[in-house]
Amino acid sequence: MAERKRPDPGRVLALLWGTATTPTPARGPRPKVTLDQIIRAGTDLADAEGLDALSMRRVAERLGVGTMSLYTYVPGRTELLHLMYDRAVGPTPPPPQGATWRQALRHYARLGRDLYRDHPWTLSVATPGLMLMSPNSTARADAVYAALAPLGLSAEQQAAIAGSVDAYVRGACQGSGVSLTSAGLDGGFTDTDDYERWWTEATPHLIELVTRERFPHLYAVWEAGAFEDFGDASFDYGLDRLLDGIERHLDGT
Amino acid sequence: MAERKRPDPGRVLALLWGTATTPTPARGPRPKVTLDQIIRAGTDLADAEGLDALSMRRVAERLGVGTMSLYTYVPGRTELLHLMYDRAVGPTPPPPQGATWRQALRHYARLGRDLYRDHPWTLSVATPGLMLMSPNSTARADAVYAALAPLGLSAEQQAAIAGSVDAYVRGACQGSGVSLTSAGLDGGFTDTDDYERWWTEATPHLIELVTRERFPHLYAVWEAGAFEDFGDASFDYGLDRLLDGIERHLDGT
DNA sequence: CCCTTATTCGGTATGGTGTACGGAGTTGTT
DNA sequence: AACAACTCCGTACACCATACCGAATAAGGG
Q1: Whole-model pTM?
Q2: At residue B38, does pLDDT exceed 80?
Q3: Which residues in chain B are closer than 8 Å to A231, comparing Cβ atoms?
Q4: CA A53, A58, A64 angle in degrees (round to 5)?
């Protein structure tokens, strides 16, 4: 976080939307890397070690390039994150032919969960506005609203429904064990090993603090091991209840 | 992100759970600040400028103390964040007398939203495990399960219900405009002004990219201004649908 | 063939970060 | 008065993003 850098929306948008496809063979020396390689290297790093580990130095090092050379291809770290995000979202496979709106929403919810599971750092990168900046994200949003269009709802209602499902998916992936460590949550851990070690050391202390006497209801659920994994079953449970509620509400109106 | 620091779970847990209440009048010079002041200063800073702005230097500066003095009271930045989080959660007011499980869950959901709205940085601090570390958070979780206890559900079902609602609340607050900037989302913006300026500059470009022809369904919803604010109404909509779905599911079983 | 010009590469410097270390100074106890 | 415990904090180190600018490179035009 150095000085201020006047950001240039046009530049990153051109990169994202491919308007910058340099057909010109250029004139200078041969580029040692491609934008694609940089994005991929960054993604690999973030996948493996989390967002904190993604520094320009390390990306450059991984590519065998000087740090500053990256700035030839990418305006800065932030913009690299945006590009990585768009690539991580990728193209959106359509729902099965003839799917109901509910099946379609479920389909897209699972795509979202796949994204957050495979690339936990996306949870920390995806600001509200990024949806409109990233072409792949925009396309996915359009697909969601396409699935809702036949219902003939108001724009507000469509936004409320899509927003609710999206909110659930994000929250479920972030709060759950989808990624204990590298979810970009600033727990302060850099390493999965660190995390494990911390907990094995902390557990004896916690056992004395979180007692059955003080927190009887929580303790009962904990004891039963119900916190072990917020897995697929839990994800589906909440999603289906939310969709149930939406369906019921639409029928009743 | 310096070298590795071997974390000491006992230390921060003692701070969090108040086991460290130094009854000893101590022997050295008078402390210039208290742990409480540090936590409060950090919270003020994070509230005003986001997590990125919360550096040990700036906290110390705000208190008129040398940077390293903070380490007398707090093991490190991470632990300070944990303490700030616990304080931000605070005590949990009980739901109204005689509230149904549904009313109680709604009550706790709104408490969560209040937390994330008033202190957006908590969204980035709250790791799954932190719930058990923070006494206030633990107490709140216990209250939630207390509300579910009369239903006689299995531990797994209770966890699925509580987890779903929590997931929705978190996702809704993070994805929404609850905090455009300082939600700790690493959008790369440090300032609300930056954010505004960026969008005013980016909008003309976006208008050319996100067209009605390419994204007809999304465009229709956007055009109607349905993205302007994911406000209270939207939050309540999704929450109520989720609770509807849970209620229906419990009745049907 | 050389020179111009566009372009990439990357070293250096600046100002930021967390925090390890150790010395200076202050206080209650002996 | 001496000691021990304690707080304060200056200095130092490793790391970070990135502004700036010169060096190296290659194509195009003469």
Answers
A1: 0.93
A2: yes
A3: none
A4: 155
